[in-house]
Amino acid sequence: MKVVAISGSLRAGSSNGALLRAAAALAPPGMELVFYEDLGSLPHFNPDLDTDSPPETVKRFRAMLAAADGALISSPEYAHGIPGSLKNALDWIVSSGELNAKPVLLIMASPSAGRQAQASLIEVLSVMDMKVLVDASLLVVSARKKVDDEGRVSDPDLAKALRASLASLAAAIAARGSGGAQA
What we know:
Blueprint: E1 2-7, H1 15-26, E2 32-36, H2 56-66, E3 70-75, H3 84-91, E4 103-110, H4 115-127, E5 131-132, E6 138-141, H5 156-176
Parallel strand pairs: 1-2, 1-3, 3-4, 4-5, 4-6
């Protein structure tokens, strides 16, 4: 099963990127995490460009999502919301629907609780018809103290929680019946 991993942070060395690398290392057998790393390259969403021939970066983003069985999004909280770059990426798939009905797992890394951004992201993804695994999603406070830049987890409770969340994502993908990707 193929899962697209998206960090909502554009910062090099972000806690969210580190959490995604940790997730890749802890993923259950048979789950491959494919990292989408061009979030900052997507143009600002413009309905006039959302045609049968959108910008090339949008085509590549959509193709990656269409080929996936699910997604893992790790995002910071900015001013009690999700980063604009992440919302912009999601806007590019509202009409095309590459993640419609696919399972999505959220990890929110924040110096504080991150609950407002998580609630906002759940609302956006649910409206877009994604199957958000709310009960399996994680809020990771002080992630920098629990995982290093390479994704090595020093906190055994976080490692256990990540494994359990990823197992839930794998189960949701299997339950969907997607032995291969479905559009």
